[in-house]
């Protein structure tokens, strides 16, 4: 009989067992804790192991639950409860998965410099779209001249906003209290993600570097996404710094991030209002009375346009792929007819 106790620190629960065990049949359930190109580190009911990743199972990511055969080869990717995705850095209309089966997303922004509200809104859209709960973390609070907590809370409806200092052990108890399940850290290089991860883990697990003094930018210290068990329960995934945060099919995430604007838009006189010069526009009225700011409305429009553009590119790519498949089918049919005629 398989003992699943070794999986519990890595997120195995009764709910996970109920969902996954009927799917794996004669395979062994395991969770990916780190991905390489053709292999991955996993944790199994028998302990940590190194597993092979065949080419026919693509897109595996840290946080995935999989089924392994007796040779420790991944044979099945189990359904994901959530996935943090951005558009590919290559510019192609495909998604890059950053982490999967995440329950809480920590959006990290360094408070000892200029806190970029637009970047936080972008990461909030990413987090909400993933089906996880976002928490905005202003790091390096001990070195900040001013903590813009009220400004950040105003742009993060539905999300908890906390200020912490991992180095000075300030605010970590408040942050720990709102963590649940698998926690993923996202943010730019230099935001203090690895330092915060080490503080939450209670050990120097991930390498850290100081930001460059000349421009205040960070250097990549985390190069792999890696999952570790948290001492108080749950798991943590540290991710490399994000330079570009392109949205991918994030309409719902944008809606939740800008729920204040979308709530106003529901009261516009015209259902196709674009919130510019139309009479009876509730969004423009909210702008006039200070309910929303021009910066926030501009950010909303920018992300919505970007998402629509990416969606149109995705639709064209899928249409092109379907056309290619049908061309191949027709080509094979014509070849078959010619060969039949010769016989």
Automatic annotation (TrEMBL):
Known SUPFAM superfamilies for this protein? P-loop containing nucleoside triphosphate hydrolases
Give the Enzyme Commission number.
Answer: 3.6.1.-
Give the record's keywords alphabetically: Cytoplasm, GTP-binding, Hydrolase, Metal-binding, Nucleotide-binding, Ribosome biogenesis, RNA-binding, rRNA-binding, Zinc
Top enzyme class of this protein? hydrolase
Where does the record place the CP-type G domain? Answer: 91-245
Q: Where is the EngC GTPase domain?
A: 100-243
- Organism domain of life: Bacteria
On whether Lipid metabolism is a keyword of this UniProt record, the answer is no
Q: Quick one: which residues bind GTP? A: 139-142, 187-195
**Localization in the cell:** Cytoplasm
Checking Pfam families in the record gives: RsgA_GTPase
This protein's record includes keyword Nucleotide-binding: yes
What are its GO biological-process terms?
ribosomal small subunit biogenesis
Show the InterPro entries listed in the entry. G_CP_dom, P-loop_NTPase, Ribosome_biogen_GTPase_RsgA, RsgA_GTPase_dom
Mind telling me which GO cellular component terms the entry cites?
cytoplasm
Q: What does the Swiss-Prot or TrEMBL cofactor note state?
A: Binds 1 zinc ion per subunit.
Q: Which cofactor does it need?
A: Zn(2+)
NCBIfam families on file: ribosome small subunit-dependent GTPase A
HAMAP family per UniProt: GTPase_RsgA (MF_01820)
Q: What does this protein do?
A: One of several proteins that assist in the late maturation steps of the functional core of the 30S ribosomal subunit. Helps release RbfA from mature subunits. May play a role in the assembly of ribosomal proteins into the subunit. Circularly permuted GTPase that catalyzes slow GTP hydrolysis, GTPase activity is stimulated by the 30S ribosomal subunit.
Question: How is this protein named in the record?
Answer: Small ribosomal subunit biogenesis GTPase RsgA
The organism is Nocardia alba
Gene that this polypeptide is encoded by: rsgA
